[in-house]
Design brief:
Layout (H helix, E strand, L loop, with lengths): L3 H6 L4 H5 L6 H7 L7 H10 L6 H4 L12 H4 L28 E5 L2 E7 L23 H12 L6 E6 L7 H12 L6 E6 L1 H4 L6 H8 L4 E7 L8 H12 L3 E7 L8 H13 L3 E6 L14 H14 L7 E4 L8 E2 L4
Parallel strand pairs: 2-3, 3-4, 4-5, 5-6, 6-7, 7-8
Antiparallel strand pairs: 1-2, 8-9
Helix pairs in contact: 12-13
Length: about 325
């Protein structure tokens, strides 16, 4: 039987694919055989928030289908140029929770460290599409400031590596960062939030898996998968490799109009992920970031969808339905009573 690691080794290296991202709207439109009417809006919207997608992700998209749920997540649209009421550039108030460069401290007991300023894929609904990465671009000096902050706050027992995407870092700087955090005795858990296991599965190399498995802290990997079509054979192998290395793996999704606003899609997603050792974590209502209003699902529909999940899935396969509210002490559950 072929191991997950051997399957991944048959693919191009993750560094090669990361260096060959699809960033030109014209190439995307041509490659997927979309009509030329999609090109001008895509170019205009990409000036505000660039197109970035791995070629392996683009290969999962059906040509000639502008309604493909994967394409909708990466294709810049005219709708992004609108400023809708109730939407802002910082809906979660992260600028006010940024005590030192590269660190966000909103919730008791845990902090988020911006380990990298870029992703392998720019999700069009990203709540950090307007984040000030220039002032929060990680360097050894900035990381040291953040590490010192964590060291000086003994109530912090969990550190979340995010970004951007922390796994775009090479193994050496990532290992240095993990070692620094492990040296702080009150930090008990390390959480990695990453889309790369879904969009660039080659990133889960034996060296990276060993780094996550063999350190003092308990490591939790939170992946971001919105649709079962995102899970091809390579992604399945990558997720199984996390399971085989004993790493707790969770999934969070964002509820997106035209992508996964269908109970059967969400049911299939939870079941498929569970087959691969991934438990559901959160199902997020859309963060109201400027440029993403066309993804919003109406509140009554959200509740109906979630009631369907509760009926059709066992409790352990139902993600928590939440939204993030600026100033709240935690994620806020959405009641469906």
């Amino acid at each position: 039987m072929t191991s997950p690691e051997l399957k991944l080794k048959q693919l191009p290296s993750w560094q090669q694919e990361l260096g060959q991202l699809m960033t030109d709207p014209a190439e995307l439109v041509h490659h997927l055989k979309l009509g030329r009417q999609w090109l001008a809006p895509a170019i205009a919207a990409a000036k505000l928030f660039p197109l970035r997608a791995t070629r392996s992700y683009v290969q999962r998209i059906a040509p000639g289908r502008p309604d493909d749920p994967l394409l909708r997540q990466i294709l810049p649209l005219q709708a992004e140029l609108k400023t809708d009421k109730g939407y802002s550039a910082d809906p979660l108030g992260e600028q006010r929770a940024n005590p030192v460069p590269g660190l966000i401290h909103k919730y008791h007991g845990r902090v988020l460290l911006v380990a990298a300023p870029q992703c392998a894929i720019n999700c069009r609904y990203c709540f950090r599409r307007h984040f000030d990465y220039k002032s929060n671009t990680p360097s050894r000096q900035q990381w040291q400031q953040a590490i010192d902050y964590i060291r000086q706050h003994p109530s912090i027992d969990e550190v979340i590596l995010s970004g951007g995407d922390p796994l775009v870092l090479a193994d050496k700087p990532l290992a240095w960062l993990v070692e620094q955090l492990a040296s702080i005795q009150h930090v008990q858990r390390l959480r990695i939030h990453s889309r790369l296991p879904i969009v660039l599965p080659q990133r889960l190399t034996a060296q990276l898996l060993s780094l996550l498995q063999h350190n003092r802290m308990h490591c939790v990997v939170v992946v971001h998968c919105n649709h079962p079509k995102e899970i091809n054979d390579e992604v399945a192998s990558a997720l199984l490799s996390l399971k085989h290395h004993g790493l707790t793996t969770l999934n969070q999704s964002v509820l997106l109009k035209g992508v996964n606003d269908c109970s059967s899609t969400l049911v299939d997603l939870s079941k498929r992920l569970f087959e691969l050792g991934v438990l559901p974590y959160y199902l997020h209502a859309l963060d109201k970031i400027v440029g993403a209003a066309h993804f919003e699902v109406a509140e009554p529909e959200i509740k109906n969808l979630y009631r369907s999940l509760l009926r059709e899935l066992p409790g352990y396969l139902v993600p928590k339905l939440v939204r993030e509210v600026q100033g709240a002490q935690s994620k806020v559950a959405i009641s469906c009573d």
